[in-house]
Write a structure and sequence with these properties.
The chain is mainly alpha-helical and about 110 residues long. The chain is built from six helices and no strands. The longest helix has about 35 residues. It is elongated and about 60 Å long. About 10% of the residues are buried.
């Protein structure tokens, strides 16, 4: 993935930040494993989109990929994706997802 094209923070930070709110104290290891497995599946959907967009952005910025006018139009349309990427609250989204699927009972 072209890390600095679209992703402002490291995946390690994003994951650890979300884990903080997902695993209340006093949970057994089986429950923790289940929560982490579900969180990983949830996180993977977004990660796949971010990686695909990073690849597309790399191609957009390569002036050899086609017309410069088309490239400039694609970059301008990319603003909606950047908003989706940078306005994301990983902890809030993960807690909402796990609560919805019934796998997060707050202590």
């Amino acid at each position: 993935m072209q890390k600095y094209v679209v992703e402002p923070s490291t995946p390690e930070y994003s994951g650890s930040h979300a884990y903080r709110g997902l695993i209340p104290r006093g949970r057994d290891s089986a429950e923790i494993s289940d929560v982490l497995r579900r969180y990983e599946a949830f996180r993977r959907e977004r990660t796949d989109v971010v990686q695909a967009e990073a690849r597309k952005q790399g191609l957009r910025l390569d002036s050899r990929s086609g017309s410069l006018q088309q490239r400039d139009q694609d970059i301008a349309r990319h603003a909606e994706f950047r908003k989706w990427l940078y306005d994301y609250d990983v902890e809030k989204a993960a807690i909402a997802y796990l609560t919805k699927c019934g796998k997060l009972a707050r202590a």
